[in-house]
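User: Before I run my own analysis I want an independent prediction to cross-check against. Here's the chain; please return only the structure tokens and, at the end, one sentence I can use as a sanity check.
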Amino acid sequence: MGHGIAQVAATAGYQTRLTDASPDALTAAMRRIVSNLTGAVSRSKITQDDADAATARIAPVVDLAAAVRDADLVIEAVAEDLDIKEQLFRQLDAVVGGDAVLATNTSSLSVTRIANATRQPGRVVGMHFFNPVHIMKLVEVIAHPQSDPAVVAAAREAAQQMGKTTILVRDTPGFASSRLGVVLGLEAMRMVEQGVASAADIDTAMELGYGHPMGPLRLTDLVGLDVRMNIAEYLHRELRDPKFEPPRILRDKVDRGELGKKAGRGFYEW
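Assistant: Structure tokens:
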């Protein structure tokens, strides 16, 4: 999701550095950003001048320290793995300026744990963006017990500058959105498993019957079935609630490599 966050930040007028350890990943990210902006121009959402200006504000940088050293706000979007995030935040803590806000884009993991990997946990906050970032309007801001209120306010202000609506949530497993969304997605999978209806018809029911912009199974394909399963396992473990246990259909698809859009197949063919 990093390229999407960089895109909305740059479109909002922020000078933005996009960083990844892989030069190939940065090249692919910039390609996606240009494609998204080109599409927005073709739909008359923005002008070509605005698209060109947004692209010019993004600097791809491979070296992490160089990318974040003088940043006011750093938003992490690495894999949804607590150990990886803690390691990254220890690295960030060593190289960013003393007033920088550090935000994690986790959709379910403990912001408190991530914050405690730093020497100044008060400057760490959750900023949970939604995929695709350039289209989805919500950012879930997560405050943990040591959060500095000024840091929380700064995160909300930045997200709002990016054109997002923010909600404020206490740090708890799954927060508000993932906790609700995962339950809905897992139940939709169980319905497919039980032969209640096809994936497409279940999604249509939620889109037309309940006004969801995207059905839970198509959304699962977009997010990644492996990501959804990891989140469900985490919530099942932390909340000790059977409704978060991944169904067999999800485990089987992940085992077969049917991970959704990124693999060409999930609950749909892509």
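Sanity check: The longest helix spans residues 23-42.
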